[in-house]
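Design a sequence for this backbone.
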């Protein structure tokens, strides 16, 4: 309230949200109205879920004091966030990434910022938001108040304190002990073959249980195995949609779902009261993660139990991590699923046998679409379900239109209809007929051509058949060939054409040179001519 920088160290669930939220709202309510794109106070949180819970916790008080409040985070509508900043907002609850984007794009101006709060600063530094945080802190004007809350005050958090905070007032509400006195810590050394069976038995106990695993895939697998064993469990991690994550947290907070399986990133946004047990199936990487995981239970002075399942090869690293966390731990070794081990497990954690009846995974229901007449601004007409039974309508009861049924003019007598151009229609009809006649003539011509080609093929086939049946001609038997003794000594030409005097055929016709007559005894050609036949060259 005095305007000095504050450095706070508090456990989860100690009420620090209202501790810084209520004084900020009172201060903003007494000040002037915020200017366009210039918020007067910012609360930085590491995750969207934590931002939603901080916003829900401060909304009733801000509304009562007429202080405008807006949640700015990734995964939500950016256009609505920009519109709210354009109108002017007193208090903005934001994640570092989305707030830095709005500042870079000119949608937010930090020149009139009076107060900035960094909640769980160590977790924001571990998530890699140091660049965005330093960028936002660098834009805070001189005289602006800075509040930083963290479970640990070393490393990057210490550098932020030294660089951007001026003579801060330190408040430590942990009393020098990071863990409350009402929290018990149990480490179970379990065999690998019975790890998940024992985890299912522990989750089947009465009360709310948060189960932590290392990977997103493991959350889905373990939650499904628990549901198959009869334990209703839901998974929450970064790959799930915002609607599914909100539904899982709401169902877990309401008590409808007793078991929630989560990763470390999603765990920072789980602020639910009356969590009896935190079970760590996968041990955390360092003591900071152990502190944040165990902070989900024993909130506001309540009792809580933290159970960590450790495999034999993880014992040494877990011992070092617990020693750095500074907690008193009870170690027990579980041999398996024998009666003695199960009895010891029941005494320590309240574990019991699951029902082994599979249960279905609950899903978020889609909002019902509003009817046409249920929307505002539609008049006083009742909704369809409130109108009563549907009345039967007759044709005679229909409303009158342009003309009465008996006084309606004929189609050709209506003046408002465009008249048809008869000349144009006749011309188009004649053109259509001419086109059809032309097509008919072309088809007839094609048919005639096809018939002529068929007749020509038949004639050629008949001629080939007659040629095959005709006897061979005489000049086809050895015409144009020589005998074996031709041009030899004492040899003579073959007698291919009759007569004693043979001669080589040079393709001449076998017709006589003269008129009809018999061949001479000397082997001349048939005919009455006395002209001697021409001898071939080189003959004797």
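Sequence:
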């Amino acid at each position: 309230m005095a305007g000095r920088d504050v450095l706070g160290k508090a456990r989860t669930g100690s009420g620090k949200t209202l501790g810084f939220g209520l004084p900020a709202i009172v201060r903003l309510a007494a000040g002037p109205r915020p200017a366009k794109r210039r918020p007067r106070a910012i609360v930085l949180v590491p995750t969207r879920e934590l931002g939603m819970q901080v916003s829900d916790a401060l909304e009733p008080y801000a509304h009562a004091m007429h202080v405008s409040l807006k949640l700015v985070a990734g995964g939500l509508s950016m256009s609505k966030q920009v519109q709210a900043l354009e109108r002017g907002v007193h208090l903005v609850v934001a994640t570092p990434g989305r707030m830095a984007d709005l500042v870079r794009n000119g949608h937010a101006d930090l020149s009139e910022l009076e107060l900035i709060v960094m909640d769980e600063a160590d977790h924001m530094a571990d998530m890699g938001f140091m660049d965005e945080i330093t960028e936002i802190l660098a834009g805070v004007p001189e005289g602006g108040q800075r509040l930083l809350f963290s479970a640990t005050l070393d490393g990057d958090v210490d550098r932020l304190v030294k660089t951007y905070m001026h003579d801060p007032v330190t408040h430590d509400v942990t009393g020098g002990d990071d863990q409350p006195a009402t929290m018990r810590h149990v480490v179970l050394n379990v065999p690998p073959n019975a790890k998940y069976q024992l985890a299912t038995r522990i989750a089947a106990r009465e009360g709310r249980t948060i189960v932590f695993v290392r990977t997103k895939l493991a959350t889905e697998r373990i939650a499904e195995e628990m549901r198959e064993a009869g334990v209703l469990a839901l998974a929450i991690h970064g790959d799930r949609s915002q609607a599914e994550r909100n539904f899982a947290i709401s169902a877990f907070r309401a008590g409808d779902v007793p078991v929630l399986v989560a990763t470390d990133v999603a765990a920072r946004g789980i602020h639910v009261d009356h969590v009896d047990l935190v079970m760590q199936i996968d041990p955390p990487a360092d003591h900071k993660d152990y502190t944040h995981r165990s902070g989900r239970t024993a909130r506001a002075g309540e009792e809580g139990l933290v159970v960590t399942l450790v495999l034999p090869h993880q014992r040494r690293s877990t011992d070092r991590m617990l020693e750095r966390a500074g907690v008193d731990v009870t170690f027990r070794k579980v041999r398996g699923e024998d009666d003695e081990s199960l009895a010891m497990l029941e005494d320590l954690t309240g574990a019991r046998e699951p029902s082994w009846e599979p249960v279905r995974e609950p899903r978020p229901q889609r909002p019902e679409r509003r009817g046409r007449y249920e929307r505002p601004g539609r008049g006083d007409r009742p909704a369809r379900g409130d109108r009563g039974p549907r009345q039967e309508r007759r044709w005679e009861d229909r409303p009158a239109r342009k003309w009465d049924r008996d006084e309606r003019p004929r189609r050709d007598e209506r003046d408002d209809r465009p008249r048809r151009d008869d000349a144009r229609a006749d011309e188009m009809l004649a053109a259509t007929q001419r086109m059809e006649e032309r097509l008919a003539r072309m088809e007839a011509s094609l048919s005639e051509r096809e018939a002529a080609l068929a007749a020509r093929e038949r004639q050629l086939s008949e001629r080939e058949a007659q040629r095959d049946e005709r006897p061979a001609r005489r000049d086809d038997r050895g015409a144009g060939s020589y005998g074996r003794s031709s041009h030899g000594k004492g040899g003579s030409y073959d007698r291919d054409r009759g007569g004693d005097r043979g001669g080589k055929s040079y393709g001449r016709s076998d017709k006589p040179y003269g008129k009809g007559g018999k061949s001479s005894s000397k082997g001349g050609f048939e005919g009455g001519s006395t002209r001697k036949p021409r001898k071939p060259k080189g003959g004797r």
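The chain has a mean pLDDT of 80.
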